[in-house]
Write a structure and sequence with these properties.
The structure is a single chain. The protein is α/β, with parallel strands linked by helices. Helices cover 30% and strands 14% of the residues. The strands form 4 sheets. It has a 3-stranded mixed beta sheet, with no helix packed on it. Strands 4-5-8 form a 3-stranded parallel beta sheet, covered by helices on one side.
């Protein structure tokens, strides 16, 4: 077995994973999140095929997408077929949001030139990356039955199993594309608490002021409540921080990435000397949008810019859609 970032059961949260043996099956487990992030030729030599069976979350910077790309590349070199056991996009397959990653900034947290919230299943994304990146892998997608693009995960009848330690609910997955974007800056997004990705806070934030400002923006499907907490891990571990809890009031109208940019614009406006905006670039992987945030553009202006990107992406992705 090959283990992605959080191990074969999605339970690990550490910088690197070593090769190990699976306690339940006794099978060797080769890490794809250690000294190398792709399978080695000698590990593939004796295999008949590679099966990809991992629950994705629908956000570009969730690293399972990059792991799939790396596996496809190595499988192509080794001339081994790849079977993707398709799974639902938990935050729907018909909503696309956010700026595209720029080709010259791609990395393990941005595997392909797709929007932040890309509205594809992992099987569809695998087909798209294989074709557009000219990988040349022999890819087979085992399709789901009865899945529709408009479904949220809780409408599928499937049981939620955490795909990673901090992705504990559909609510957190829904918030993740927008709130997760902020976590490489100097704010806590709730890692080390019971509510990762449901909060944004820092010692220098006045939670009531930020919540009041964001509530005046009248965002569809969301409201903001001031909070104070002390994370026991990650950013500001052991430090009491103040900020906001993002409450989804209508998920059908809630735009996750737009909400994230609203918070970024508010931090830039209210705390220009405290919020380290340049660090927003790491997951944004698009210099044009970083410049807009730093310039003080509103989230309306930023979302207006990505409308064309999203329309173009929908045209690009259409040939790879397996469900309608």
């Amino acid at each position: 077995m090959f283990a992605p970032e959080h191990g074969i059961r999605g339970e690990l949260d550490q910088a690197n994973l070593d090769d190990t043996k699976d306690e339940r099956t006794g099978l060797p487990v080769y890490s794809l999140y250690g000294e190398t992030r792709r399978p080695k030729p000698e590990q593939l030599r004796e295999l008949d095929a590679i099966v990809y069976d991992i629950q994705d979350i629908g956000a570009r910077f969730y690293t399972y997408t990059a792991t799939l790309k790396n596996v496809l590349e190595e499988a192509a070199k080794a001339k081994k077929p790849v079977y993707i056991l398709d799974r639902p996009n938990p935050i729907r397959g018909d909503i696309v949001e956010g700026p595209l990653a720029q080709e010259d900034k791609l990395s393990f947290i941005a595997a392909h030139t797709i929007p932040v919230r890309y509205g594809l299943t992992i099987g569809e994304l695998g087909l798209m990356m294989n074709a557009e990146r000219k990988i040349g892998a022999d890819v087979h997608v085992i399709k789901m039955q009865n899945w529709r693009r408009s479904m949220w995960f809780d409408e599928t009848g499937q049981t939620w199993v955490n795909p990673s330690p901090n992705m504990r609910s559909l609510t957190e997955a829904t918030l993740y594309p927008g709130i997760g974007l902020l976590e490489t800056t100097n704010v806590s997004v709730g890692r080390g608490t019971d509510t990762p990705f449901e909060v944004v806070a820092a010692p220098w934030i006045d939670g009531r002021r930020l919540a009041n400002f964001l509530n005046t923006r009248n965002l569809d499907g969301a409201r903001f409540v001031s909070v104070s907490f002390t994370p026991d891990a990650s950013v500001f571990k052991g430090v009491t921080v103040n900020g906001i809890n993002i409450v989804i009031t209508n998920r059908a109208r809630f735009d996750s990435v737009r909400t994230g940019f609203e918070i970024a614009a508010a931090l830039r406006k209210l705390y220009p000397d405290d919020w380290e905006a340049d660090k927003y670039a790491r997951l944004l992987v698009n210099a044009d949008y970083l410049e807009m945030v730093k310039r003080g553009d509103t989230a309306d202006m930023i979302a207006g810019k990505w409308a064309e990107d999203v329309a173009n992406f929908r045209r690009r992705s259409k040939p790879f859609l397996l469900y309608h």
